[in-house]
Design brief:
110 residues; alpha+beta; Alpha-Beta Plaits; 5 helices; 4 strands; 28% strand
Length: 110
């Protein structure tokens, strides 16, 4: 049962994008991706809102998230969020282990 957390970081004057860029350039993103249980850690930039960055963060299970949250990396993430004065909206999803229904497959081009 994978858990995916969508985090929308919002700020002003391009700060959300600057945060994502510094997270990447500082090596924090690659360190998180290397953590046991991390399945995905990727930033996206919504077309309609230039002041928001979407992070899709997926983990094998809650125990993996708990270890991540207890790691020293969280202090660096918090420091950068504060540096760029970002606000967050969080959505959390648990994977559907049954896969894509047959009725939906007709709409998917692989």
């Amino acid at each position: 049962m994978a858990i995916t957390v969508n985090i929308y970081y919002s700020g002003e004057n391009g700060n959300a994008r600057k945060f994502a860029e510094e997270m990447t350039s500082s090596g924090v993103v690659s360190d998180i991706r290397a953590e046991d249980g991390n399945l995905r850690y990727e930033y996206f930039f919504p077309m309609e809102n230039k002041e928001t960055v979407l992070l899709i963060d997926s983990w094998k299970d809650q125990a993996s998230i708990d270890v991540h949250h207890a790691s020293p990396m969280m202090a660096k993430i918090t420091e950068l969020r504060e540096k760029y004065d970002l606000h967050m909206k969080v959505e959390r999803y648990v994977s559907d282990e049954t896969g894509v229904p047959e009725t939906d497959k007709a709409f998917i081009k692989e």
